[in-house]
Amino acid sequence: MKWQAENNGVKPPESKDLSMISFVMPITRNTKQDNAAAVDWPSERWAQTRLSGEIFSQTIVREIVTDLMSRGILAVSPDVTSMFNKKRYPNVGWASPWSHRHIAYAAGLGTFGMQDFLITEKGCAHRLGSFVVNLKLVPNRKRPEDIHAYCLHYQGRKCLKCATRCPVGAITAENAHDKEACYQKVAKSLKYCNKNYHLFIYGCGLCATGVPCESGIPKPLQTD
Ligand code: SF4
Ligand code: SF4
Question: How many domains does the chain have?
C-alpha cells in the first residue's frame, strides 16, 4: 500500500485504516468431475481453468482496484504488481510472499485441509483472489480459531482421501503435505499439459477433487 500511495503522490495510510478483501470463485461441476476422474495428471478442463482462471481473477481484481482508485480510494492487489515473485523458503520450499489462501483464512472464508487447500463453504476446489483497500470494513465472516476446523482427518475422523488421490504420495498422516514432493510433481505437469492439451500451464489438484471436502465443508463438520 505504501508503494501504491507513493506511486500516486499521496501519504501512505496507517495500517489501522486498511482492510483486506478476499473472495472465493468455486470451480464448475464439470471441471471438478473431470479432475476427480483423473489419476495421474490434471484433466484438460482443470488445466484450462488454471490458465484462464488466473487471467480472469487478475483481470477482475485489476478492474476493481482501478475503479476504487478512480473514486479516490487507495487499493492494491500485490500479486498483480511488479514486486510479486514466488520464493523458495528454507523451511517450507516454494511459497508465495502474498497468499490469497492465508488471507481468505484470516477473513473467515475457510480453514486448511491436509493437502493445504482452503476448505470453504463451497469446498476446496476453487480459485481465490484478494486485495487491500484503504477503507475500514466490518468482517462478514467469523474465523475459526482452529486452522483445520473443516478437515475430517484433523478433527479425528476417518478420511485421508486426499492422500490416496495423490499420485506421488506427497500427503501422509505423519507429515501432512510435503510441499517439495508436490512441487516436483506439479512442475512436471507443464510438459504433460503442453503435449496433451496444447496449454502452457502446470497444475494438478487431484487431491482437491473426488474428496469429501471438494465442494463444501464435509457434512459431519458442518455447524449449521
Ligand atoms: S480429503 Fe479428508 S483428510 Fe483430506 S483435506 Fe479433505 S477432509 Fe481433510
Ligand atoms: S497437488 Fe500435490 S499433493 Fe495434491 S495430488 Fe497433486 S502432487 Fe499430490
Answer: 1
